Structure formats: C-alpha cells, structure tokens
C-alpha cells in the first residue's frame, strides 16, 4: 500500500482576510437600553464568615465508602470546622480519620465527605465541651443547634443587606417576571445610597430537622401550649396508657406515657396487661425494688411484651421534659435465640426506629454500643456475656437487663448471674415460662436476682418458707405441718405477686386451635425387659447404689435401654466406659446390634405410618440424645420419609433456614423434623407440624414443656396432638412421677393453685425396679378406681364423702370374704384417708385431669355406641387406629384435651 504524505488541513473562514483572524465584534446596546446599568449589590455571607472565624463542632456518624445496598455506619466521630477546614476524628480511638475543606453551614441530618469518609451530622456541641474532652468520654452535654448558635440561625441566615433595587428585583421574581428585564418606567428612579434590612422567613432546613422521608410516624405534633403534651395521643382508640407516678419532682410536671400505636395495635388483652405490669414494676410502683418476673407460659408473647416495654422506656418519661427512662438496654439469652431476638425487633420496629447491636462474635467492636449513640439495645448470649462483662461497664452503663429463659440462673454462684450483677443495674427482668423447675431454692435465686434482699437471706428463706411448704406437700404430713405450710405458701404467693405475673395457655384458647396431650405407656418387648433385668441383677448394680457417681452412670444406661438396648453399643471411634464394658456381655449380641427390640421405635413406626398415609399433617420428633436421633433417622430413611434435623452440630446460621423450610413446604419435601431438646427445645416456631412426639423424657419438666410448645403457638391452624412415650414400669415412668411432683410444687407457688404432691419420698426411692404389672404403677399410686375406662372416680368419691353425714346410720352392704380383694381394699382405704384431710383438694391433682384409658378396654369394644364413646375419650383418630392393632405394645393411656 502506497502511503501519501501528510498534508495539514486548511481551514478557511468565510470572513477571514489574508489568513488573519477576524476582528472581535463590538458589543452594542439598543437605543432602549442606553441608560447605564446599576452595579450589583455585594452581600456578605455571614454564615460562612461565622463558621470560618468562630469554628463549629459536631457529633457525627461515619463510614467508609462502599457499594452495599443496605449501608450501616462504622462508628461515631467528632467533626471540627475551623477556618473553613474540617477535621474528622473517631470517638472510640481518638484518631484522626481525615481532613478537608468545608465552608458551608451544617445542620443535623446533613451529609458530606471528609478525608474519604462519608459522614452524617448527628448533633452540635459547644466549643467548651469539645476542648474539655467530654465527647471522648461519652458524657457530652449536647445542646440543640438553636441553643448553641442562636445568632447564626435566627439572625445571620435570615437577614440580608439589600438595596431598594434588590427589593424590586425580589418583588418581580415573586410575581413571575424576568428579574433581568428593565423595571417599568414609573419605577426607574435612582435608588438612594442607604440600605435597608429586610427579614425573610426561615429556610426549610432551619425550621425543620431532618426526618427519614418514608418512615411512618405516630408522634403527636408539637404545639405552643405550655401544658405537658404526651408523645402519642392518649385519646385515640385502644390507646394503652401507663400508670402515673404518685410523686413528682419540684418544678416538674407529669405527662402521660402512651405506648406507641405501632406496637399497641398488635397487643392482645393479656399482653396489654403484661406491659402495664412490667412498666409499674420497673418504675418502682409495685414493690420496693425495680425488678420483675414475666412467667407466662410458652406461646403467650413474652418477646413482644418485652419489646413494647423497651421501646416505651427508650422514648418516654412520665416526668415532662426529662430524658427517657432508659438509654442502654441489654438482653441476655441462650446463644440459639440471639438471632430470633434480632428478627423480632426487625419484625415489630423495623431497622430504622431503634439500633440493635447483636454481639455474636468477638470481631465486633463493643465500644460501638457502650460509647456510641447509634445503638440502644444489645443482644448477647449467656456464655459470651461472661467474656465481655468488664467492657460493658464502660461508657454510660446499662440501664436495664432482660434475662430470657431466666430459669438458667439456677444458683447464686452462676457465672452468668454474677456477670449481670457486676453491671450494677437495678432494673432487671426475668422471662421464663417455668420459673420454678426443681425446687424452691432455685425460685429464691430468681426472686433475689430481680429484687435483691426482698426475701432476706437464703438460709432464712429455706428455714421459714421452703422447708415448711415442702413438708406440708407430703401425703402423710401432720395437721400442724399442713397448717404451717399453708400459711407460709399464702405469704410467699402474696409477696411474689407484687413483681411476678403468670398467665397460662388457657388465655389463648380463643386464639389457638385445641391441643390434646397423650401420655403413652409402652410395655417393653421381651428382649428389652430381659436386658433391663440383666443390668439390675449384675454385681455392678449393688455397687452403684452406694456410689453417687456410679448411680448417675447407671441411670444413663437404663435410660438408653428404655429407648433401645442397641444404644448401649458405642460407635467405632468411641471407647465404651468401664461400666458398659462390664454390662454389655450380659446382653445377647443380637439385641445390642438391632433396633427391633425397642418398643418405643415400634410404636413410633406404626404412628408415623398412620399419620403419613391418612392425614396431610407433619410431625416433630424430639429426643434428648443425638444417638437416639440417629436411630430415628435410620427408621425414616428406611421408610422413605423426608425429614430435616436440628441438633447441637447444626450451625446457628443455618437453624432458622431449616425452620422456615419446614414450615413452608409440604410433607413430601419435609414430613418430619428431628429436634434435639437441648439445642432447639426453646424459642423455635415449628407451626408447620401439628403433631409432636417426645421420644424420651427429662428429669426437668420444663425441658419437656418447652419442647411441647414448639407447635402450639401463634400461627398454628390445625388441632395439635402431643405424644409422650414412656416405658411402663421402667425408669421412664419413675422419672415422669418425679415430674408430676415438681409440677405440683410449681403450680402451688407460681400458678397459685392449692395442689399437692402426689407421691411420697418412699415411693420415689425405688427408681431401678422394673414393675411388670399389667397397669402402670402411676395409675395404681393414684388410687383411682376407674379400671382404665376413662377416670372420674375422684368426683364420685367426693360425692360419697359429701353424703356421709346423711347416711351415718345406714349399714354398709355385706360381701363374701372370698369376693374381697384385701390388697385393693387396703390401698383404697389408705388413699381415701390421705385425700380426706383438711386442706387437700384431690380434684386439682394433675393426673386426675387426664382420662385414664386401658388399651385392653379399647380393643374389647364391639358395640358402635361404645366405639363412639372411646373415640371421644381418646380424641385422636390416628392414635385410636394404632391402639386397635393386634400387636400394639401400648398398654395404658393418659389423655387430656383442651377442647
């Protein structure tokens, strides 16, 4: 290719001559504008000069530039503007973050960039506060923009020095005319030399602070009235107004505290009462202390009541124009519920109204909560609290502590309790559906935590309250012990009612579908009973009775045998304990290697088959042991039933996703949910299932109650069925008897019910005996004469007792000696005397609220009328079909329905 030489382009202008550029055109004026224009009036910018000369100081929020959709602030800082130059420093580290020019006035809500950091103005501080260093200590006395520089807002920004011509120009602009055009002929006189001060209305930014444009607001607009004005309208429909304090400081006024309608409209009647109760306790209106116990049963909305209380205290004060009651709040809960609390705050208040600091790992800066102003609420787990308790003492301190699942604070030496007490916070609240779990000693610990010293010392409480009450609850207590225990119980209930509120699930009957609880007594298989007896006959059994540590190991072994003897076999990687090495040779190898000998697994298999084939419902299966969950998992796999599993090995970040998946999918995607009682037995909402199976039982009744409440909660649409599996005559049944005794004591003190302990200490000592009678020992100890046909003999006996006075002269009917069962008669007389003492109310016994059903009676019914009666009695068509099976191993049933 031949390249042509470069030839520079030539530009020829049409008006150019001889290559010279054209001359500039002279600007001419028309004849109508020959008059000389007046020079522009120079106006001084007083705002800029004030900033450059005096200096301004602000508290700000700052963050690094990022492209995230939902941005968060990195921390709090201080901004100083002197001589038109801005300097940004971090409050926590006191290090300089950046510099840059700034010559414009700033107001709260303004944003700008300094040194590569994005900042937002939070407030204005005085020069004296800035140089004193108070902001770095977290005790800055903020003043409003109007108080700090009144001249700048009210004078400098509102006053302009303008000439008469400038005034005319403003007037023309107002009427929509062109300000550059000449004025009318009659207004063209030359303006005088003097100037005039004209006051304009305030700019919009000076009159109104920045507000998030899309955030709904329920705050009542302020007026010029000097009368106290509440934050929310107390006259609106269903307004929730808190109780007014009895006294008021001098020169102050009392104003109504009204719950924000954003939350108030969602509260049910019992929740409104709960919020009022907690508020009065925290404000010291009900007792000497400022603590409270919210002891509502599971599913009654303790979380929503707590959020409503905190939001009210964070924003309002009954003393007019005083700061809010609470500035920093701390919520301590089990680690598995930290994320649940965060979601609840987002659900009810959103992300904009309140700053919630979730401390779930050590990489987060705790000073963002303690020293900063962006966060008012902190959520932390019990274990993590012990690590950061010293750092929490810095800054302005904690104003209120909420202890969720507070029954975990069992002893005064509990590390989590000591960590909370070290914060020196007087306002404390315990949330627990089961505040009394094992004994009155734990209950005293909870009371002394929320209101220290109210019940005196622990030793005095044990002597004056615990011992007399427990002694009076024994079946063979004397008349003096009954009278003393009754008096001490009433006094304890009177004291605790001042700061503890308790509502049972009965208040939800109009909101939730009915539930039916079945206590299923399973007769052990031949192989299972043989393995149980072999362990009890072993030499190690007699040794364990005299050694507490070995006794605990033996209890663990027997609980495994109740679930399945195959659970005694250790995994390949694990070395069996010394006790297991001694016991395993006593059990046949085929029993240890197979799950077929487990009676619970057989009943579960039959129950799951009926649920899957005859209903569209799903099921939750709960166990205290991961090895038991492994066994159930293999059963579900062999049946090709889909399932999900949550136990201690499930990462916390994935737990909520599993719950949501189970609740939103049908049974083809997830028919069963395997749940560890220790890891997921509290706080989870598993309303995707309407049936729950408690495969084994725990010594603590609260553990089982918490697990049972996972499905009977807000949002549940179907009637709930609860199954608790027990091996009849074995350790399972003895543990259940212990639960009944503990719940009887809890009902007496917490629920204010005059129920009694059903079993004596002597009857509960024989834990290891295998009772192989046809009916369970539990029913025999009740002395119930229903013979397994539904119960109700207690009412008949009471009627008999009430008629004794009328029939004193009537002779008893005679019976043949051969027809009298002496053992049965002695048991009935003994039980009759035990229940006939003053102060005892048999109708309130827990197990007398259940229907007592012998499965032999169900299988022997042939008439249609009787079958209908049995169906009403059991109140569960699926379970009824299981009980009718010929090879069914269920021997007895205790049933209670809320319907």
Task: Explain what this protein looks like in three dimensions.
The strands form 4 sheets. The protein has an 8-stranded mixed β-sheet with strand order 18-19-17-20-21-16-23-22, with helices on both faces. It is built from 35 helices and 23 strands. By secondary structure, the protein is of the alpha/beta class. Helix 13 (382-392) packs parallel to helix 14 (415-421), helix 16 packs across helix 17 and helix 19 (539-545) crosses helix 20. The model is unreliable at 46-52, 140-208, 748-765, 792-818 and 829-844 (pLDDT under 50). Among the domains are: 46-156, no CATH class; 159-182 and 190-200, no CATH class; 261-506, Rossmann fold (3-Layer(aba) Sandwich), CATH 3.40.50; 526-592, no CATH class. Helix content is 37%, strand content 14%.
Topology:
Elements: H1 46-54, E1 56-64, E2 75-82, E3 85-90, E4 96-101, E5 111-114, E6 117-125, H2 127-132, H3 134-137, H4 145-148, H5 150-156, E7 159-162, H6 164-174, E8 196-199, H7 204-207, H8 261-264, H9 269-282, E9 291-294, H10 302-315, E10 329-333, H11 338-349, E11 356-359, H12 367-370, E12 377-381, H13 382-392, E13 400-404, H14 415-421, E14 427-431, H15 440-450, H16 458-472, H17 479-496, E15 500-501, E16 515-522, H18 526-537, H19 539-545, H20 548-563, H21 578-583, H22 589-592, H23 599-614, E17 619-623, H24 626-638, E18 643-646, H25 652-664, E19 672-676, H26 677-680, E20 691-694, H27 701-708, E21 720-727, H28 731-749, H29 761-765, H30 777-782, H31 793-802, H32 822-835, E22 851-854, H33 855-860, H34 864-874, H35 877-883, E23 890-897
Parallel strand pairs: 9-14, 9-15, 10-12, 10-13, 11-12, 13-14, 16-21, 17-19, 17-20, 18-19, 20-21
Antiparallel strand pairs: 1-2, 1-6, 2-3, 3-4, 5-6, 7-8, 16-23, 22-23
